[in-house]
Write a structure and sequence with these properties.
This protein has 259 residues and is an alpha/beta fold. Helices cover 49% and strands 7% of the residues. α6 (102-118) crosses α9 (199-217).
């Protein structure tokens, strides 16, 4: 997984749809991108810069790193950036492959409903889709989580030939929601002093995240080999809540020896 933790403080944008209505929890920002990049539709650009200003600023300034949103010449620079042949092909392929995202929407809705019940103190993520430049799969900006669809076009996608086999395996749409939820929880429960922690402590922290994501998904997406230490730990601490587990896993002061 590749992720950008973007520090944002410019507005809250559009709130997540109510989980009780028929609207989809994944907001299709990428469709505005495609409309503007392929037709130059000014109304799409205006919506990107008003309704989706946080998402657009994160894309332009933190992912693509092509300048500051609103500065002179930015619109033309944005268009030129995506004229790259590989990115142009990805735009067309994303538009075709992800024409329908009903399964991902239903999977995310299930996760969010379980999250409300199992992690009531954690704010629900506001999830949207975008088209980046093959660098980051997931972008986190506060409670906003951007999924870069060009990173989930399938393990045999031609542009992925430079990635190793294990990386390509994860570049399929089935990994999209599990990675989205994992990265969001990592942003909410960052490991204390990660750079100085032991490998054992780091591994346990990640396993706590994957264990909880499995619970939110309602299935073992991350296998026993990826959660074995936490499985054993929770067998010994049956009364521990998932919230307590995540808090415990992120503490550098705990003793992980013997887990």
């Amino acid at each position: 997984m590749s992720v950008a933790m973007v520090g944002c403080s410019y507005g809250d944008g559009t709130p997540i749809s109510s989980l009780g209505d028929s609207s989809m929890p994944i907001r299709r920002y990428d469709l505005l991108q495609v409309r503007y990049l392929t037709t130059g539709d000014y109304s799409a650009l205006q919506k990107m810069r008003t309704t989706y200003i946080v998402e657009t600023r994160a894309l332009v300034e933190s992912l693509l790193k092509i300048g500051v949103l609103g500065e002179s010449g930015m619109n033309e620079r944005f268009l030129r950036y995506y004229e790259d042949p590989t990115l142009s092909a990805a735009i067309a392929d994303v538009d075709s492959v992800f024409y329908n995202m009903d399964e991902e929407n239903e999977q995310l809705r299930t996760c969010l409903n379980r999250m409300q019940r199992l992690l009531p103190d954690v704010e629900l993520p506001d999830v949207y889709t975008q088209i980046g430049d093959f660098e980051q799969s997931i972008v986190v900006c506060g409670r906003k989580v951007g999924i870069s669809l060009e990173k989930y076009l399938g393990s045999d996608y031609p542009a992925y030939k430079l990635y190793d086999e294990q990386q390509r395996k994860q570049m399929t749409r089935e990994y999209m929601i599990p990675e989205c939820m994992s990265i969001y929880l990592l942003s909410q429960f960052p490991f204390d002093d990660f750079g100085r922690a032991s490998q054992e402590a780091r591994d346990f922290h990640f396993q706590c995240i994957w264990y909880v994501v499995n619970k939110l998904l309602g299935k073992e997406f991350f296998g026993r080999s990826e959660t074995c230490k936490v499985d054993a730990f929770m067998e010994m601490h049956k009364d521990m809540s998932l919230m307590e587990l995540l808090e415990y896993g992120s503490q550098k002061s705990r003793n992980v020896s013997g887990i």
